[in-house]
Design brief:
CATH topology: Deoxyribonuclease I, Chain A
Helix content: 10-25%
CATH architecture: 4-Layer Sandwich
Structural class: alpha+beta
Radius of gyration: 17 Å
Number of helices: 7
Strand order of the largest sheet: 5-6-7-8-11-9
CATH superfamily: Endonuclease/exonuclease/phosphatase
CATH class: Alpha Beta
Largest sheet: 6 strands, mixed
Strand content: 25-35%
Number of strands: 13
Shape: globular
Order of helices and strands: EHEHEHEEEEHEHEHEEEHE
């Protein structure tokens, strides 16, 4: 599962990290990659979001979850630390979380403060899962091109089978995404062609429209797509608004 939680802000702009906890707890993926996760941010209760989510999902599911977090950027803001509500300066980054131990954790820096974070779990066997978030906005196109040129060779060095997921901030037809799609299968497109795609049938992973979040399978991996879902989180939780401005993408794979 990949999910951009937008710092815990709902689609209506209200801070409510419990929404992300509830979504993950309902779905209970074997591994989830999270983007836009913060620590010690004064606008978000100074929460250690990876730990709050890990603990909350553990309580709701009755399982022991593991999490690894890697910061992409930080600011010198010490306001949380100075008032005793935080443990460090403000940071934002990526997280991988699973209901068992994470192993083989590695991170790789990309230009303009972005990165890739990789791990394995016992449930996924030999499969390496890599999460990333590329630069956003039309003006950041050169950054995305550069980030992809760095990401692909590093990811290839993680071996096979391999799954790449995250917020690529590019539509499927975008020119900068084609080098990625040349070496990876888009699980949502595979599931749609096979009639096993569910959820938001438009394919929109952003609440305001557009598909920029992906779960991608390295070509040649001994892994097959069983199903894919773009989750309407408002419908999942019976809420009036979606939990984030992005929707989770959930894919079930079978290892051949």
């Amino acid at each position: 599962m990949t999910y951009n939680i937008q710092h815990g802000l709902s689609a209506s702009g209200r801070y409510n990290l419990q929404g992300a906890i509830d979504v993950i707890s309902r779905i209970q993926p074997d591994l989830v990659g999270l983007q836009e996760v913060t620590r010690n941010h004064p606008s978000y209760n100074c929460d250690d979001q990876p730990e709050v989510i890990r603990n909350g999902v553990g309580i709701e599911t009755g399982r022991s979850w593991s999490v690894t977090y890697e910061r992409e950027w930080f600011t010198p803001d010490r306001s949380c630390l100075d008032r005793g509500a935080g443990t460090d300066v403000e940071t934002e980054g990526l997280a991988l979380m699973a209901p068992d131990a994470l192993s083989g954790v590695q991170s790789f820096p990309l230009i303009n403060t972005r990165l890739a974070l990789a791990a394995r779990t016992a449930r996924a066997g030999p499969v390496t899962v890599i999460v990333t978030q590329l630069a956003s906005g039309a003006a950041a196109l050169p950054d995305r091109v550069g980030q992809i040129s760095q990401l692909l060779p590093w990811a290839a060095g993680q071996g096979m089978p391999r799954i790449l997921l995250g917020d690529f901030n590019s539509q499927p037809g975008a020119a900068e995404l084609q080098p990625v799609l040349a070496g990876y299968l888009d699980a949502w497109a595979v599931a749609t062609a096979a009639g096993v795609a569910r959820g938001v049938v438009t394919g929109d992973t952003r609440v305001r429209g557009g598909r920029i979040d992906y779960v991608l399978l390295a070509s040649g991996s001994e892994v097959e797509v069983e199903s894919a879902e773009i989750v309407d989180t408002a419908a999942l939780l019976g809420a009036t608004t979606e939990v984030s401005d992005h929707r989770p993408v959930v894919v079930r794979f079978r290892l051949r």
